[in-house]
Write a structure and sequence with these properties.
The chain is an alpha+beta fold and 218 residues long. It has one helix and nine strands. The chain has two domains: 34 residues; 158 residues, C2 domain (Immunoglobulin-like), CATH 2.60.40.150.
Length: 218
């Protein structure tokens, strides 16, 4: 009986030890799948859809052109470094690349994709910052508006699994919600990529003069 009790105890302890090992192995596989939250490789893709400025106005409610339409120039920066910082975020507007231009059209379709990678660091969210101005070679360019386009979805596990967000409006700085508000629509998707694919380098322009404006509150 004594030996039987010892054997039974050994079996119980062995079973418990095996279960602990199995549980640790299972948890380890789950952790490896999620990856180190401080060492993530993420790609953010955003698409500017349309600029709507039916009134053909600038940020201070003046008309872009007395007899014609606006000549919009659009600049953008996809900010993954300081998405919650005040405008302009991680990079000054003067260094943002131009992503679109049109002549004599107030409300153009843009359909321009912009991407940015976040490499080997934590990722939570991002923001697409956009600045538009009316090109005027005769004097100076005038600001049309500036927007922030929030990117808040969690990253999909792969590009194949990444779904585009519904089309939404960016948040304008000047005249939000007013009849004279100039709107900008966008969509985005976020997904994980391999370390070898990650390129966090910025595509920046040479410094330029930003369009002048003294917007009114109305």
């Amino acid at each position: 009986m004594r030996y039987l009790g010892v054997i039974t105890l050994c079996l119980v302890l062995s079973t418990a030890f095996a279960e602990r090992l199995y549980g640790a192995a299972t948890r380890g596989r789950g952790t490896a799948h999620l990856g180190d939250p401080n060492d993530q490789y993420i790609r953010v893709e955003a698409e500017l859809i349309k600029l709507t400025n039916d009134g053909g106005v600038t940020a201070n409610n003046a008309y872009c052109d007395t007899f014609g339409a606006c000549d919009p120039r659009v600049f953008a920066h996809l900010d993954t470094d300081r998405p919650n910082a005040e405008w302009p975020g991680a990079v000054a507007v003067e260094y943002w690349p131009q992503v679109f231009e049109a002549d004599n059209v107030n409300s153009p379709l843009i359909n321009k994709k912009i991407k940015r990678d976040s490499c080997a660091k934590p990722y939570k969210d991002a923001v697409l910052r956009v600045y538009a101005e009316d090109y005027d070679p005769a004097s100076h360019n005038d600001q049309i508006n500036q927007w922030q386009c929030p990117i808040t979805r969690k990253a999909a596990e792969s590009e194949i699994e990444a779904q585009w967000s519904p089309v939404a409006e960016c948040v304008p700085k000047f005249h939000p919600g007013k009849m004279n508000s100039v709107t900008l629509t966008y969509r985005y998707r976020v997904f994980r990529i391999n370390k070898s694919q990650c390129d966090a380098s910025l595509i920046a322009s040479t410094p330029r003069t930003v369009g002048a404006t003294t917007p009114r509150s109305g």
